[in-house]
Amino acid sequence: MNARRLLLTGLMLAFSFIGGAAWAQESYHESIEIGLNADRITITSGFRGTNLTIFGALDGADPQLAREGRYDVIVVLQGPPQTLIVRRKTRILGMWINVQSKSFRNVPASYTEASTRAPQDITSPKTYRELALGPDYIYLEPVIKNDPEEVKEFTKALRTLKKTSALYSVNAGGVEFLSSTLFRATLPLPPDIPVGTHIARAYLFRSGQFVMQKSAQLEIVKSDFERSVYETAHDHSFYYGVFCVLLAMGIGWGGRFVFRRD
Amino acid sequence: MGIYLPIAEISANIIVLLAMGGAVGFLSGMLGIGGGFLITPLLIFYNIPPAIAVATGANQVVAASFTGALAHFKRGTLDIKLGMVLLVGGILGSGLGVYVYAILRHLGLLDLLVSLLYVFLLGAVGTLMLIESARTLRRAKGGISPELRRPGQHNWIHKLPLKMRFRTSKLFVSVIPVLGLGAIIGLLASILGVGGSFIMVPAMIYLLKVPTKVVVGTSLFQVVFVSAFNTVVHAMANQTVDVMLGLLLMIGSVAGAQYGARVGQKLRGEQLRGLLALLVLAVAIRLALDLFVRPTDLFSLYLPEAS
Questions:
Q1: Which of A125-139, B123-137, B266-280 has the highest mean pLDDT?
Q2: Does the global pTM surpass 0.80?
Q3: Nearest to A47 among B11, B235, B294 (CB)
Q4: Which residue of B lies nearest to A260 if distances are taken between CA atoms?
Q5: pLDDT tens for residues A140-149?
Q6: What ranges do the domains of chain A cover?
Q7: Cα–Cα distance measured from residue B204 to residue B197, given in angstroms and rounded to the nearest whole number
């Protein structure tokens, strides 16, 4: 009876000690903030892609760990969600024809990631999967969920195709610490970056452990001229079509004077 | 030099677009084809979304064919009367084609049928033209250029009633085969989504026996209307005509078409037919390769169709 009580007290002591040690480590409440130098990017007629710079601050960091470079930051810019169809060709009577297809909902139209180091050096695939972080781990939701084998195959193809077209990209080393607290992320946006509401997210890791994330919104919009062309094409489609035909005829007629060769 | 395309929502190179338009316009002015079956694959290859490539291609073809038709009209190598009759037939055929298109799409056979039809038509037309023009070229070596039509040559087409005189084409035939030809081509064109001049040109040459030079101008005349109609339809149904993209292609193609029309004028009929045959065959082979050779990537991405 006594022995048991002693053991219990001993265990409690031991636990409180471990707890205390853990508490000592937790006394550093790291947090990050990010700031965009503009909350909108305007696409003008000369747009050919751009480097988006996001500045951020790391507060409450353990100076010891910071010196050892144990803090990692991953910054992503995720484009507006879209529905996408993935088709697969199959050989039928010697001809390659699109037969199977799978639709996915809420697929980010673009996904640009920058990180302090190569992603596989920061944390484990398991953590990435839990956070749905990175072109290989973001969750892609199939519209019809049956046949998990096929879904897996089509999901993989979707990621590969998006990466090939540069809409999904990873810029390892794109996040740099300018001082022990200030960091800068450089995200190379492709020329065909979709317009709409984008979300910038920053993830903080300490020694491979996820600590916290912060997000901010960014609007990518067309400039006035581009937007009014788009709106006219949608709101007054008949007149827009007729205008295009008349423009073509006007150029065809005018071209006779400029380039006449008879 | 880049430019952002407001409808396609991507940025493209101005020089590349001008050059593409120029190359297709040159062939268009020379051979009397609209070039829709050339510009659309080129644009898709350049990463323009397919729906926008098809619609804006049609818009570009309006400019190229209009300028080419004007050039031929000035030279008197455009048979407006023949063009009008073909056009009436074409409109009837197109109307039927839209209906057939909807049925095929409902049956889920559209993609395959369109691919097969393309390969078969282009392959057959190209091969026949190539054989004929090569034979004519060989025979004409050193001698004068023989016309396809020899005096006193008549076939069953000439026995049909409702005869009409087409002065520019030096033709006196029944309107039935002319209307019928226009209708069949209109039907095929609306299923394939192109102007159909690559079938129209050889059909006029070999079936109606219209002189090659008049064929080029008359075909362009008809293409102006078909592609203008297609442009407005695409603009209304899908909002896929990109005016900036179209503008650059047009400028290139109008310049190209003027030079093309001049070069075409210097070539003999059988040389023109031979060139068109080679071009048509090249496109057929490319499409056949797409269909029969294992693609490097079996997967591809599509946006759901706007409806």
A1: A125-139
A2: no
A3: B11
A4: B258
A5: 989 888 888 8
A6: 39-223
A7: 10
